[in-house]
Amino acid sequence: FVWLVVQFYAVFPLLNAGLRRLGPTRFLVAAVVITVASRAFGIVFAGELYFWMTGKFFGSRLAEFALGMVIGRLIADGRDVSWVWDADFELLLDWLREEVDRPRDQTRFP
Prior knowledge:
The chain is mainly α. It has helices at 2-22, 24-45, 49-56, 62-76, 82-86, 89-101. α1 runs antiparallel to α2 (24-45), α1 crosses α4 (62-76) and α2 (24-45) packs antiparallel against α4 (62-76).
């Protein structure tokens, strides 16, 4: 995990410049494309899949970081981001309740 933080710390200036140049929507799309591509690369070529997916290369977690950057930029620009906290919160709570109440011997998939 520390290695992932170090990588994001190192590339943040480049990512921030990309966010400013591309705007939030295109920046997020680019981040998702890079994340999917790096995870696909990891699935095909990485010897230890767990370490690849959890932060050996920052690209495999870029979409999450980019979303945080976009929300931070919107807040810094004084935009209303109340939708972030309200978005599907009820659905998340329902899912959590279902998971907690589901007996452990049941599987989700037959």
